Amino acid sequence: MFGFLKNNPYAIGVDIGDDGVKIAQLANNEKGISLLAGTSENRPLDINPVSGAWQKWAIETIRELTANGNFHGKEVVAAIPANEVFIDNIKMPKTGDNKLEDTIFLKIKQKLPFEAAKNNTMIKCIPTEEDNILVMATERNVIDRHLAIYEQANLKIKSIGVWPAALANSYTSFFGRRKSDLQAVVMLLDIEPNYANVVICRHKNLLFSRSISVAAKDLGDKNTAARLVLELTNCRRQFSSMFSNAHIERLIFLSGRTVEKDICAAIAKQLEMPAQMGDCLTAVQINGSYRFENNPEQHKEHSGIPIDRRNSSINWAIAFGLSLS
């Protein structure tokens, strides 16, 4: 009977980064959230990220994966990769609302990792709590490049989201559903192949965010793991200095099986924080009509083969969160 439940599909979530692309579409039915379709492909090692060859590869890959998968519709929610977004956590400037963005731009201009001018910088400001603001900025041509990718892949952009909000969506939809979670402040840790993303939120309300240049594959090295712990400690310290009325209750790993449980446990122990594993892939239901294969060669070809939940080591937190937007 499960396979005949009415599905109300969300948009297709596309998580594209310098390591590859992950595409997922969720749906809501009488039983909860289910997975309609999902697939991924790694970036070829001979293609440099953000190059013209990368853009061509991204267009062809996204077009092929969405055409050959079990995806419904053409509507997409995407996000600019973490390494192309500058994030800062600042106090609310004292200025009129009509000049707020200009004031914030001047405040962060010297910190931006690109040559910034007001006309080539896109800024998103998210008011949080205690007169703080989460600021995200990127170059306008980065936005244009990503819009062009989806247009040429024959998809319709519903919105360009932000990865911190996508992580918060995954947390609240799968792991923050108790009444007590509505006011709980949690730290979400999303460890990707080439970096680690940190979000501190009160349910869906973003409070703090940062991306750290620590790769999942290097966490077996004690020095790298120690550096991540130090960076997370600095995040907690900065958060505490900005939010005197908020206390982080627990740490949630949203990395799925990308990072071994023993490594996550060691990180939590050093931080002296209660922690839990948050594998988004095991939290969703599976459409009854979906076939699962366990053939690495077929999966490598990406000919519409769905996610293998039993053996997947891919982190789906951002792609799922984008679909839920």
What name is given to the CATH topology of the largest domain? Nucleotidyltransferase, domain 5
In one word, what is the shape? globular
- Can you give the mean pLDDT? 88
Strand content: 25-35%
Helix content: 25-40%
Fold and architecture overview:
31% of the residues lie in helices and 30% in strands. Helix 1 packs across helix 3, helix 4 crosses helix 9 and helix 5 packs across helix 6. With 325 residues, the chain is α/β, with parallel strands linked by helices. The strands form three sheets. A six-stranded mixed beta sheet has the order 8-4-1-2-3-14. It has two domains: 264 residues, Nucleotidyltransferase, domain 5, CATH 3.30.420.40; 56 residues. It starts with 7 loop residues before the first strand and ends with a helix. A hairpin with a 2-residue loop joins strand 1 and strand 2. The chain is built from nine helices and 14 strands.
